[in-house]
Design brief:
- Helices cover about 35% and strands about 20% of the residues.
- Helix 6 links the parallel strand 5 and strand 6.
- It has a single domain, classed as Rossmann fold (3-Layer(aba) Sandwich).
């Protein structure tokens, strides 16, 4: 599935406005550190809104800036490979900036999707997508499903004890 992990240039060549061949391109983004059911449901909902789903993921450095020390749990290439293996994902692009504005501006997707936990006026890329005739869609967040809550449960459980010790 590494063939689905693209540079911004490759994604633009394949999914840019001039090269879509009438396909409706959907874009979403996030850290996607420790993939969980909430991620899967939001990705499937996003894919249902078009013909191709492009997922932008934050690089390791940008995740650390956003989430703090100890994050991400999985390195960017592993996160990208996991996402690229999902049937609903057509391509993954890793970005080093704190926001996906550069990818969104380059691709100008027909639909920009974010989780319902983002206020409409805080969705990065909204202006660019709407100015190009696209739309922004908020998908519901799955209650209780977040990487932060999973990590909190793991920390509360304490260190695992090996059967061999």
């Amino acid at each position: 599935m590494r063939s689905r992990i693209l540079s911004l240039q490759e994604a633009s060549q394949r999914f840019g406005r001039a090269n879509r061949g009438g396909k409706r391109v959907v874009f979403t983004n996030g850290c996607f550190d420790l993939l969980h059911p909430g991620h899967i449901q939001s990705l499937e909902r996003a894919r249902a809104l078009g013909d191709a789903l492009i997922v932008g993921i934050n690089s390791d450095a940008s995740v650390r800036q956003l989430k703090g020390a100890g994050r991400p749990i999985l390195p960017e290439l592993e996160r990208a490979e996991i996402l690229a293996a999902l049937e609903c994902v057509d391509a993954v692009v890793i970005f080093g900036e704190l926001t996906p504005r550069e990818i969104i501006s380059a691709l100008l997707p027909d639909v920009l999707v974010k989780g319902g936990d983002w206020a409409g006026d805080q969705i990065i890329g909204r202006e660019e997508v709407e100015a190009a005739g696209g739309r922004v869609v908020s998908v519901p967040v799955v209650a209780g499903c977040s990487t932060t809550s999973i990590l909190a449960k793991m920390r509360a459980a304490g260190p695992a004890v090996s059967k061999d010790s």
